[in-house]
Amino acid sequence: MTTELPLIRLVDDDQLFRVSQTMLLKARGWEVEEYESGEQFLQNADLRRPGCIILDVRMGGMSGMQVHRELLKRGCRLSVVFLTGHGDIPMAVRAMQRGAASFLEKPVKPFELIEAVQKAVESSLQAAQRDEQAVKNRALFDELTAREKEIVMRAALDTPNKIIARELGIAEPTVKMHRGHAFAKLGVKSPLEAYRALLRLGVMRDDGASDCESKD
């Protein structure tokens, strides 16, 4: 479980608005960083920490939409809550299609902003936890020996031990031993569980093909 506290990044060129909304968010117990422009935000913000981005659509310099497109190019997966005083339906639709969490119109009601941020933060924390678990699971797979990887990839497709033994030119008892070790290291008990685990790790595709090359 991630131990990082969520961070709210507030990007808006209206200083009075930033001050008031920062006070509101901090009163709810969140840590907040303010940015007066999209350029300043993109240059200085830490995008790895869980949390969310509150992004004004219309600012001097880069617009909120331009900032969002740049975030997507960088692979940023943080939830974005858009704010605008000049919003329209097509703009909101485009923002949501690009993955925005919410689209709120100014003046924003405090409870609406709090609710949107809460949902965005929860989503970010869940994603961070999934990423952490994926890293741990991948580390478990990487700890398998080359032979264990060869066998577990076949076993995950419910290939019988005797066929695996024939394909690899080894004895069936040896297959059973390596299969048991691999299943234990991955924390799985059946071919189906192994298959699902390998799919999550990205070392096996839905068609059963392997994306992983075993290395000694």
Question: What does the secondary structure layout of this molecule look like, with pairings?
Answer:
Elements (H helix, E strand, L loop, with lengths): L6 E5 L3 H13 L3 E5 L2 H7 L6 E6 L7 H10 L5 E6 L4 H9 L4 E4 L4 H33 L3 H10 L5 H8 L3 H15 L4 H11 L15
Parallel strand pairs: 1-2, 1-3, 3-4, 4-5
CATH superfamily of the largest domain: Response regulator
Morphology call: elongated
Q: Give the second-level CATH assignment, the architecture of the largest domain.
A: 3-Layer(aba) Sandwich
Arrangement of strands in the largest sheet: 2-1-3-4-5
Mean pLDDT: 87
Total DSSP E strands: 5
CA-based gyration radius: 24 Å
Amount of beta strand: 5-15%
Q: Extract low-pLDDT stretches.
A: 212-216
Order of helices and strands: EHEHEHEHEHHHHH
Query: Could you name the CATH topology of the largest domain?
Result: Rossmann fold
N- to C-terminal distance: 31 Å
Structural class of the helix and strand makeup? alpha/beta
Work out the helicity level.
40-55%
Largest sheet: 5 strands, parallel
Structure in words:
With 216 residues, the chain is an alpha/beta fold. The protein folds into 2 domains: 7-130, Response regulator (Rossmann fold); 143-201, Winged helix-like DNA-binding domain superfamily/Winged helix DNA-binding domain (Arc Repressor Mutant, subunit A), CATH 1.10.10.10. The chain has helices at 15-27, 38-44, 64-73, 89-97, 110-142, 146-155, 161-168, 172-186, 191-201, and strands spanning 7-11, 31-35, 51-56, 79-84, 102-105. Strands 2-1-3-4-5 form a 5-stranded parallel β-sheet, sandwiched between helices. The longest helix is centred in the middle third of the chain and has 33 residues, at 110-142. The protein starts with 6 loop residues before the first strand and ends in a 15-residue tail after the last helix. The model is unreliable at 212-216 (pLDDT under 50).
